[in-house]
Amino acid sequence: MKAREAACGVVELYQAEWCPHSHRVRQRLTELGLDFVAHQVPVDPAERTGMERATGRRSIPTLVLDDGTIVGADDEILAVLDRRFPETSEAARHRAKAVEEWPEWLRLAPSRTDGFVGSRSMAGRSSERRSEAMAEFVTVASSVEVAEGEMTGFEVGGERVAVANVGGTLYAFGNTCTHLQCSLASGELEGTTVTCPCHGSRFDVTTGALLRGPAQEPVQSYRVRVANETLQVEL
Ligand code: FES
Questions:
Q1: Which of 48, 75, 179, 216 to mutate to test the pocket of ligand 1 (most atoms within 8 A of CB)?
Q2: What total of structural domains would you count in the chain?
Q3: Domain holding 209: CATH number?
Q4: CB-based burial of residue 177 (10 Å sphere; 0-12 exposed, 13-18 middle, 19+ buried)?
Q5: Residue 115 falls inside a structural domain
Q6: How far is residue 216 from each of residues 21, 117, 159, 203, 207, measured CA to CA in Å?
Q7: Domain finish residue from 108, 136, 153
Q8: Domain end point (choices 78, 108, 138)
């Protein structure tokens, strides 16, 4: 949790209407009777420079409280709101109305404190089904253009693949987060862990294993090599 130097005196939510995690936060702000200003953000986290200038973050939802405290990720935001603001007498009625108007809401929030249960992509599945016999190395870049500690995303053979350079060793994995399909190559790489820029899911770049949700499935892992000074991924 961070805080702005100067409190702005109003609750601000960086969000997008299509984001179910943003919706959870909007719903809770409504239940608590808190007025807020909603800031819409670009779809691509790489383009959220204005948001980053204001909050230090590019992932949504991000909430700036009236005292300047900055909180990210819906579960954490809901926990902070619960600690700071008492349940209002109107809250239950707002929840009942939400379910009445939009039954799909039950899928997003079976109870106010339960975790989000949303749709999940099947990223990587097509590759998993690919047989060893069919696999072949495909050139994704004419030179090794992934600097140490960096990641780059490629589109090759209909697959979105990310390549990470960890201490001089290259690792290739599915570039589509299995939560809501954000680009992992736009996220943060720390050691062998990549953190999705959208809602913070974490994956091990060496295996594609899921380390932390909200995603519930791993991403595909690919073999990668440098041959004839080109970067190649086995598809
Ligand atoms: S898209 Fe939600 S965590 Fe990656």
A1: 179
A2: 2
A3: 2.102.10.10
A4: buried
A5: no
A6: 15, 10, 20, 11, 15
A7: 108
A8: 108
Residue 225: which domain range? 125-234
| Residue 203 and residue 166 share a domain | yes
- Asked if 21 and 199 count as a contact pair (C-beta separation under 8 A), the reply is yes
Beta carbon of 199 within 6 Å of any ligand 1 atom: yes
pLDDT digits (tens, 9 = 90+) for 83-125: 888 887 788 788 777 767 776 655 555 444 332 222 222 333 3
Give the sheet arrangement for strand 36-40, strand by strand: 2-3, 69-72, 62-64, 11-15, 36-40
C-alpha to C-alpha distances, 179 to 10, 189, 227, nearest whole angstrom: 31, 18, 33
- Among the listed ranges 61-65, 140-144, 190-194, which one has the minimum average pLDDT value? 140-144
Structure tokens at 144: 């090794």
60 ligand 1 Cβ < 6 A: no
User: Same domain, yes or no, for 6 and 87?
Assistant: yes
Distance CA 221, CA 159 (A): 12
| Residue 95, domain member (yes or no) | yes
pLDDT digits over 197-207, tens only? 888 899 999 98
